[in-house]
Design brief:
The structure is a homodimer.
Chain A: H1 8-13, E1 14-19, E2 23-28, E3 34-40, H2 53-74, E4 78-83, E5 93-98, H3 120-134
Antiparallel strand pairs in A: 1-2, 2-3, 3-5, 4-5
Chain lengths: 140, 140
Amino acid sequence: MSSFEPDTRLIADSYPVTELPLCQLRMMNDQRYVWLVLIPRYEHIHEVHELSAADQQQLWQEGTRLGQAIQAHFEGDKLNIATLGNVVSQLHLHVVLRNQDDPAWPGPVWGHSQAEPYTSDQQAEVRSRLLALIDTIDWE
Amino acid sequence: MSSFEPDTRLIADSYPVTELPLCQLRMMNDQRYVWLVLIPRYEHIHEVHELSAADQQQLWQEGTRLGQAIQAHFEGDKLNIATLGNVVSQLHLHVVLRNQDDPAWPGPVWGHSQAEPYTSDQQAEVRSRLLALIDTIDWE
């Protein structure tokens, strides 16, 4: 696991938050959204069905439980949960909390507009709130 | 189940294909994509985490197994699997087979451009191919 490296484009666009049972959890560096990316720690898997049945279920469980937790805590209007991979084919799951007044609403966030990076203080604060939330979730 | 009615906008944009154990399976009426929509037969659920744990897993299983089957049969480059609901909030899962030469590639299909409806012959042919594929899948 220590040898796992996400795709360099995912690393460039996001911050690491923590390691979940299956996935490396990262936060997109865009202060306009609470936008998480879950990356199963396999470097050469592109589609969900390439995972074992157990890992497929674990990926969904990690994404949906995180989604429920951030929607309750950050009070968004709608969750968008998606695996696309048209640009970065390494399997990763987006969990994005949407608000009716966000820049891309009601369209998708992917490719909509340039990210507005967090300041280091903002990033540290959101990350600490996420870590506290994650401590309340049973992942198994 | 017979009383279930999808949101009228989903009905307007898609054709019914069949009923899966959890979801009504529909095909978006856009001949440019193999684009399926799975709608759990509950009219007032908006987020995945509002489903029971068993239904959450069944939704994912139906979407990922269909995705694997259409990618093998229709030979696409990438699967996009997403639940968004920013426009139609009734819970539904998109399973879209993408190709590097499709109109929206590599961007998302949602909101990209006006659909090009199937002719009735095309729609019947794709639907029959989907039904034959679905007969080969174990849903439980």
